[in-house]
Design brief:
It is built from eleven helices and eight strands. The chain is of the alpha/beta class. The protein has an eight-stranded parallel beta barrel with strand order 1-2-3-4-5-6-7-8, surrounded by five helices.
Length: 288
């Protein structure tokens, strides 16, 4: 089974929610980190989230910055989290947003597709050019690894560069997407998707349908729902019959326990509840 077949099946069975393990030590209750090292506290928190949500989400996204900020102990927790996901036959996205060329890119691919930091997918920044993407092909052509490449991101400053107008009056990010689609078309499997996906934010209401139609055979990683308050209809339109993409939610899931009096004793339970609520909120758009 290819990686995309695994992901497509997970979304079909468990829904499209991607749990973002952007875990800060500040999110962890004092009682859950007393007498623990930083790496153990981070990992134990992540493990509870994973154990409680693994049947109601498709994949986990681990944002490396949160772990790098704690130095070696943070990276130990990062590695342990990825390993735990893999041992449970679950899927992971390492949100590392790498952007480099030639031998440096090959080393990044080796670092995040094997060894201590092995993940199923990694995120890439394409704005150095296609030679910052091609070094990853040696891994993804085997169809057991994949990438999500930044296309139209959800942050307020996304338009500074992504939407620059070209001579033909098209927006720059479409040129990036078209080149990535050419590569992806060579790697499609029986799901109709390939291992080169796109990061498409759900905060840009006027573009979502056009982007989904233009890149119909590319899987989307969809940020912006949850803490960034993207409209659920935007998210629904970026999906393809409730598949073809995963919808990331991080803080809204990790910190949901704070909304309840008994939350500190039921962190995983309330994370699970938020996953289910997120899925239902987006799915209801299909009945409107």
């Amino acid at each position: 089974m290819t990686l995309m077949e695994r992901l497509y099946k997970k979304v079909s069975q468990n829904g499209f929610v991607c749990v973002g393990l952007d875990t800060s030590i500040d999110y962890i209750p004092k009682t859950h980190k007393e007498n623990k090292s930083i790496d153990q506290a981070l990992f134990d928190f992540n493990r509870e989230i994973i154990d409680s949500t693994k049947d109601v989400c498709a994949i986990y996204k681990i944002q490396i910055a949160y772990y790098e900020s704690y130095g070696l102990l943070g990276m130990k927790a990062y590695s342990k989290t990825l390993s735990y996901i893999r041992k449970n036959n679950l899927l992971s996205i390492a949100d590392v947003k790498r952007s480099d060329i030639a031998q440096s890119a090959k080393q990044y691919a080796k670092a995040h597709f094997s060894g201590d930091f092995e993940a199923d997918f990694i995120t890439l920044n394409p704005y150095m050019g296609m030679d910052s993407i091609s070094p990853y092909l040696d891994f993804i052509e085997k169809k057991d690894k994949g990438v999500f490449v930044l296309l139209r991101t959800s942050n307020p400053g996304a338009s500074d560069f992504e939407c620059l107008k070209l001579k033909d009056n098209s927006e720059f990010f479409y040129t990036v997407g078209d080149k990535l689609k050419e590569l992806n078309n060579k790697l499609l499997d029986k799901t109709g998707y390939g291992p080169i996906g796109l990061v498409v934010g759900a905060t840009h209401k006027d573009e979502v349908e056009k982007i989904r139609k233009r890149y119909d055979n590319m899987f989307f990683l969809i940020p912006g729902f949850g803490a960034q308050m993207a409209e659920s209809m935007n998210v629904y339109k970026l999906l393809n019959n409730l598949n073809g993409g995963v919808v990331n939610s991080s803080r809204a899931i990790l910190k949901n326990y704070l909304n309840f009096d008994d939350g500190e004793d039921k962190i995983g339970y309330y994370a699970r509840l938020k996953c289910i609520e997120t899925r239902k909120e987006i799915e209801k758009n299909g009945r409107l």
